[in-house]
Amino acid sequence: MLKKLLTALLLPLVVGCSENDKNSANADKETYTVATCADYPPFEFLKDGQIVGFDVDLVHAIADKMGIKITISDMSFDAILGSLKSNRIDMAISSITPTPERKKAVDFSDDYYSTGRVFVCNDSSSIHSINDLTGAIVGVQAGSIHEVYSNGDLKKAVTDITVKSLPRLPELVQELKTGRINCICLGAKEAEVLATNTSGLRLVAIEEGSLGCAIALPKGSQLREKINVALKQLNADGTIEKLQQKWL
After folding, report:
1. Residue 91 · residue 223 · CB < 8 Å
2. How confident is the model over 111-162, as pLDDT tens digits?
3. What is residue 89's DSSP assignment?
4. Which of 201, 170, 163, 200 is nearest to 185 (CA)?
5. Model's pTM, two decimal places?
6. DSSP string of 166-196?
7. pLDDT at residue 208 in the model
8. What would the CATH number be for the domain defined by 117-205?
9. Fold of the domain built from segment(s) 31-114+212-247
10. Domain ranges for the chain
11. How many of the other CB atoms lie within 10 Å of CB of 117?
């Protein structure tokens, strides 16, 4: 009887600890972990062993406005949403588009930037529009909005295409250079930087609306509204415009 009574009394305490762990992203912390995929210049990339770029400078400016400390963690793009869902990280900034499907799994801040979408091809490629993609192999970054688009709307618009997903952009560039894929589907600004810094590449525009970028957070995170306030302040004081001039 005593054993059963103690078990009954302790059970709510165990459940309570579990809930606290589950919502750890909402608790005040000494340092918050921010995930990014550092292979996407000019938004996030490695330079001299440091993660730099527009998104990196922006999230540091947001942290300053919020009065918190952050640490940046580099991971594969397709691992970011899962890490947010399990509360292993507190937020993520990596040119992430807040799609309806993603909103079911995680929360998002207000958009801080918008971009378009293009194909990156070799100079010698016969691809000049979507109409030239029949039979092509299209490379995309695993977990990206471009993977969703290529497997969805693009496959509906073009017959007989193959989509090849890889974790990192440099791997896709290598596949393109060696002819194992015919093009890469990518955001316009990062594609522009890639073509500028890599010889033998050109861009093919896709006619469609812009894609917003936002900070992703675990569901129910108390940081969301604070981040939105900081973004409004950074827009008002010209910081975001200055960062765009610096990086974009």
Report:
1. yes
2. 999 989 999 999 999 999 999 999 999 999 999 999 999 999 999 999 899 9
3. S
4. 163
5. 0.79
6. ESSHHHHHHHHHTTSSSEEEEEHHHHHHHHH
7. 67
8. 3.40.190.10
9. D-Maltodextrin-Binding Protein; domain 2 (3.40.190)
10. 31-114+212-247, 117-205
11. 22
